[in-house]
């Protein structure tokens, strides 16, 4: 775990209240694995005591940059959205456990993302496509919220659904998965808990991993603000420490 002042190299709004930020640094970009997250300090850390957890959309180890995508939901992320090129942000990371790419049986993998759960799946898809046939299904609330569709299409077979039908398929991601009727050997999903619950139920017979987008306090497992009930009477798992990526069969939603 490293604390580093990282420089903003790129910052732009890419969808409704959704921003893409590219940060450069010396150490953190070299340490991060797909699926992990960073904790970003907001302001001077006095008015906003808690850092904001933001997942990693992409990693460039040569340029030593990480790409973050976040949605403005309150004062903290609103402050973040006003940062300019060349400014520095105090970043703690990498945190959590990322995607497990081992022991995948078969050759067809399903990627399912919803809203702000889409970003960590982009770098994952880049890692998978040299070795597997990948199918991507993305869900958003409305057409104005859609982002990275073209980026995913350049990598893999991609489908988009919106809740209001203003873009792509009118429905939710599980509707598209049902219509495709493909034989998946493994899946990775990231998004809001109701979506993950629906995916977990629909693909109960398929091995998979779920990545959680939870509100966090400390980000290092000390505050118990982001727990999820585990199966087999094992109590609870901490999303920030045990996750954010967990096997689909080890949690109850």
TrEMBL record:
The protein's required cofactors: [2Fe-2S] cluster; FAD
Entry annotated with the keyword Ion transport: no
Domain of life: Bacteria
Cofactor, free-text remark: Binds 1 [2Fe-2S] cluster per subunit. Binds 1 FAD per subunit.
Gene3D superfamilies, per database record: Dihydroorotate dehydrogenase, electron transfer subunit (2.10.240.10), Nucleotide-binding domain of ferredoxin-NADP reductase (FNR) module (3.40.50.80), Translation factors (2.40.30.10)
Chain segments annotated as coiled-coil in the UniProt record: none
Amino-acid positions noted as binding FAD in the UniProt annotation, renumbered to this chain: 52-55, 76-77
Pathway: Pyrimidine metabolism; UMP biosynthesis via de novo pathway; orotate from (S)-dihydroorotate (NAD(+) route): step 1/1
InterPro entries on file: Cyt_c3_hydrogenase_gsu, Dihydroorotate_DH_ele_sf, Dihydroorotate_DH_Fe-S-bd, Dihydroorotate_DHASE_ETsu, FAD-bd_FR_type, FNR_nucleotide-bd, OxRdtase_FAD/NAD-bd, PyrK_electron_transfer
Pfam families xrefs: DHODB_Fe-S_bind, NAD_binding_1
Residue sites binding [2Fe-2S] cluster per the record: 218, 223, 226, 240
Domain FAD-binding FR-type: 1-101
Keywords: 2Fe-2S, Electron transport, FAD, Flavoprotein, Iron, Iron-sulfur, Metal-binding, Pyrimidine biosynthesis, Transport
Quaternary structure (record): Heterotetramer of 2 PyrK and 2 PyrD type B subunits.
Role description: Responsible for channeling the electrons from the oxidation of dihydroorotate from the FMN redox center in the PyrD type B subunit to the ultimate electron acceptor NAD(+).
NCBIfam families, sorted: PRK00054.1-4
Family (UniProt): Belongs to the PyrK family.
Protein name, per record: Dihydroorotate dehydrogenase B (NAD(+)), electron transfer subunit
Organism, as annotated: Alkalibacillus flavidus
């Amino acid at each position: 775990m490293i604390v580093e002042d990282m420089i903003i190299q790129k910052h732009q709004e890419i969808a409704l209240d959704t921003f893409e930020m590219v940060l450069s640094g010396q150490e953190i970009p070299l340490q991060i694995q797909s699926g992990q997250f960073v904790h970003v300090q907001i302001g001077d850390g006095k008015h906003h005591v808690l850092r904001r957890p933001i997942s990693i959309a992409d990693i460039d180890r040569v340029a030593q940059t990480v790409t973050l995508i976040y949605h403005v939901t309150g004062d903290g992320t609103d402050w973040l959205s006003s940062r300019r090129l060349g400014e520095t942000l105090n970043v703690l990371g990498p945190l959590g456990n990322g995607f497990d790419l081992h022991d995948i049986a078969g050759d067809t993998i399903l990627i399912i993302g919803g809203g702000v759960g889409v970003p960590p799946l982009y770098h994952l898809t880049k890692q998978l496509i040299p070795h597997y046939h990948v199918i991507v299904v993305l869900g958003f609330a409305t057409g104005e919220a859609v982002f990275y569709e073209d980026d995913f299409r350049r990598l893999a077979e991609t489908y988009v659904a919106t809740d209001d039908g203003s873009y792509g398929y009118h429905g939710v991601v599980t509707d598209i998965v049902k219509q495709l009727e493909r034989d998946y050997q493994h899946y990775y999903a990231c998004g809001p808990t109701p979506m993950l619950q629906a995916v977990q139920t629909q693909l109960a017979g398929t091995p998979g991993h779920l990545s959680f987008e939870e509100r966090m306090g400390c980000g290092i497992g000390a505050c118990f603000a982001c727990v999820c009930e585990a199966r087999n009477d094992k109590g609870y798992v901490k999303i920030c420490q045990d996750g954010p990526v967990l096997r689909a069969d080890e949690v109850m939603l």
